[in-house]
């Protein structure tokens, strides 16, 4: 079935596209890595420390650090070393030893058919694997599945260098879609793990198909073998695949993911890139970030504080677009604007996370929207985030416009 706008198809890797029993693979991986680094650290201590550092990545809930930074802070100091001291050994491991683990995995013919058919139908395809490994380890496993990213134009392949959240945090999926530029239209997650793949995707508001070869899932209108995904997509209504980002858990996940995705999207920008406008009348990246910074501190935070503090307050409208020229955003510092936006966003999240469930329905009166609630105001903030992430993505990657 074709979709307009195109369907966004998110695909898990291990035990979805690639047969890979992690109960077998992970111990073999740990043993191989500890042997390779035996001259630097006691193997048993290294394994324990690596597992502890991995748990830190899984539980990470901050947009301030990439997963690789979280891992490094938890892994190297307990071993009394710095990454630079062992980087050559790690690089050699992934180049020479990691490829030997391929024997533990099995390619799946249905995976290649699914991906090739998806591209033929014009779907956007992203590899939504848990980003707990370096990029090379993820690319190699894609190659083992017969799905080399050099051959297939995946919209996004995550890794611990470029992501701030991991499964099962719903912010992982929010960050994933944000780095894709928040594509419009229907979207579905396909994965084998009900805890890491299906539950958090649905928590964000995505449709999900559980790859359960036994067909024993709780929602077997959206589960089956990998070969069942395409037939299911042929019959499902596009309306049922339209994301719904309006539950409090989804709103919090997106609010948390926005600064994370902005950091990744702008990480490699030069000063000239920050100031380049796609068209004379359009904003450059620095102007987008300055706008987000000022709206967060001068509009979003005061509105939420008023609704939390007062009984049914009046929320005035504000025209913020003229600030770009009046405040000379184009001449400002982009990375500093992102930092200040993140600081304000931390404050906004702290206020929301302290709320009781009933507080999300606290009433307010908006100058434009009329009677509203705190949850609806937060939803408007999320939509504003998504709009400007799309704008930034189109500015940085004009071929996607």
CATH domain fold name of the largest domain: Four Helix Bundle (Hemerythrin (Met), subunit A)
| Number of DSSP E strands | 10
The structural domain count equals 3
Helix/strand-derived category reads alpha/beta
For the report, how would you describe the main beta sheet? 5 strands, parallel
State the end-to-end distance: 24 Å
Helical coverage, percent range = 40-55%
Tally of alpha and pi helices = 15
CATH architecture of the largest domain: Up-down Bundle
**Can you tell me the residue ranges where pLDDT is under 50 for at least 5 consecutive residues?**
none
The percent range for strand residues is 5-15%
Give the quaternary arrangement of the chains. Answer: single chain
Q: Could you give the order of the helices and strands?
A: EEHHHHEHEHHEHEEHHHHEHHEEH
Gyration radius, to the nearest Å?
22 Å
Report strand order across the widest sheet.
4-1-5-6-7
What is the CATH superfamily of the largest domain?
A: dinb family like domain
Calculate the mean pLDDT score and round it.
95
Give the CA-based shape. Answer: globular
CATH class type of the largest domain: Mainly Alpha
């Amino acid at each position: 079935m074709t979709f307009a706008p195109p369907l966004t198809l998110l695909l898990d890797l291990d035990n979805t596209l690639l047969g890979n029993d992690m109960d077998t693979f992970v111990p073999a991986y740990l043993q191989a890595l500890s042997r390779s680094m035996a001259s630097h650290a006691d193997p048993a201590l290294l394994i324990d420390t690596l597992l502890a550092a991995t748990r830190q990545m899984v539980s990470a809930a901050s947009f301030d650090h990439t997963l690789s930074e979280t891992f490094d802070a938890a892994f190297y100091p307990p071993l009394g070393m710095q990454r630079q001291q062992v980087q050559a050994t790690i690089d050699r491991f992934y180049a020479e030893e990691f490829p030997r683990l391929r024997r533990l995995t099995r390619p799946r013919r249905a995976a290649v058919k699914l991906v090739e058919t998806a591209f033929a139908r014009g779907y956007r395809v992203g590899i939504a694997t848990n980003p707990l490994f370096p990029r090379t380890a993820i690319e190699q496993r894609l190659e083992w599945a017969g799905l080399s990213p050099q051959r297939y134009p995946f919209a996004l392949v995550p890794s611990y260098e470029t992501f701030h959240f991991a499964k099962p945090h719903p912010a992982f999926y929010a960050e994933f879609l944000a780095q894709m530029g928040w594509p419009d239209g229907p979207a579905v997650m396909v994965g084998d793990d009900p805890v890491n793949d299906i539950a958090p995707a649905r928590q964000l508001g995505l449709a999900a198909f559980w790859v359960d070869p036994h067909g024993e899932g709780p929602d077997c209108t959206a589960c089956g073998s990998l070969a069942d995904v395409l037939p299911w997509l042929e019959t499902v209504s596009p309306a049922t695949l339209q994301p719904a980002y309006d539950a409090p858990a989804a709103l919090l996940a997106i609010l948390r993911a926005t600064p994370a995705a902005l950091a990744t999207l702008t990480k490699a920008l030069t000063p000239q890139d920050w100031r380049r406008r796609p068209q004379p009348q359009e904003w450059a990246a620095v102007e987008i970030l300055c706008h987000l910074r000022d709206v967060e501190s001068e509009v979003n935070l005061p509105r939420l504080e008023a609704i939390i503090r007062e009984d049914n307050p009046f929320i005035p409208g504000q025209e913020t677009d003229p600030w770009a020229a009046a405040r000379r955003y184009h001449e400002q510092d982009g990375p500093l604007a992102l930092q200040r936006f993140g600081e304000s966003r931390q404050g906004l999240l702290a206020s929301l996370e302290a709320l009781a469930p009933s507080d999300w329905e606290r009433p307010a009166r908006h100058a434009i929207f009329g009677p509203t609630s705190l949850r609806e105001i937060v939803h408007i903030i999320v939509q504003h985030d998504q709009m400007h992430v799309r704008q930034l993505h189109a500015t940085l990657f004009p071929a996607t416009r």
